[in-house]
Amino acid sequence: MRKLSTRRRHPMALLALLALALLLTGAAYATVAPESATAESASSVSQVEAGRQLFVVGCASCHGLNAEGITTAGTDDAKGNYGPSLIGVGAAAVGFQMETGRMPMAQTAPQAPRKHIEYTQDEINQIAAYVASLAPGPARPSEEDLDWQSVDKEGIAEGGEFFRTNCTACHNSVGAGGALPSGRYAPTLQGVDAVHIYEAMLTGPQQMPVFSEDVLTPEDKRNIIAYVKTIQQQGNNGGIGGGGLGPVVDGMFAWIVGIGGLTAFAVWIGMHGTRSKKR
């Protein structure tokens, strides 16, 4: 009959064994882990921290120290809003607002106009990385999303349908822009980079509605950009385009210049024409 051992294991033996296993696992991962992945992770953390430093200096006065937003007079309504919260807006919103010079805003106004860019591209990328780290939000579009030159004629036609359905009420059928109530306006899309058109649809800046990836897919957005860029590159074979501002402006031009010119010419003929002599 085998005699049972009466020796007991030390209570710290299991803990020591677990610590040894964790140490060996970490050493093994450090050995086989790609150096690029480790460097990329460290770079990402460094970029976020650099973005936070820039944010505290240049953005916190309006958007709050932690990007939670600031309201005046202790109110949360639209009139008391001083700087909206940026938590959850994503890197796409930062890219659009800062790369077009709309932010930082020079002075309070119904709408932030496009102006000279105040930050370098690296600084914008760092602030975008910091804001993106606060909460999930729309990321910046990829090169494939912006490759509107590869869209065929069917895609351009489809993009035109989407644009006329969702965008012409404010931006005009050719993207020339237009006035809106309360001192606001839909800016022209002439000369706007594809990335900013995409990000505007994705984030809905100012009074523009948000067209998420569920509402308009990346392919839909690329087709819309292709349509806008295509019509901007087309010539005006019909003569004077009138700025592409639509039938109302064309009608006013026809009445004022056309009918007005004919009326003036008729008056001139009546005043300088040959009069019949009385006998």
Provide a descriptive summary of the structure in words.
Heme c 2 binds at residues 167, 170-171. One of its GO terms (molecular function) is quinol-cytochrome-c reductase activity. The chain crosses the membrane at residues 252-271. By secondary structure, the chain is mainly alpha-helical. Among the domains are: 44-134, Orthogonal Bundle (Cytochrome Bc1 Complex, Chain D, domain 2); 148-233, Cytochrome c-like domain (Cytochrome Bc1 Complex, Chain D, domain 2), CATH 1.10.760. It has helices at residues 13-32, 35-58, 60-63, 90-99, 121-134, 153-166, 168-171, 194-203, 218-233, 247-272, and strands at 70-71, 81-83, 178-179, 185-186. A two-stranded antiparallel ribbon has the order 1-2. Helix 4 (90-99) runs antiparallel to helix 5 and helix 4 (90-99) packs across helix 8 (194-203). The longest helix has 26 residues, at 247-272. Residues 74-80 have low confidence and may be disordered.
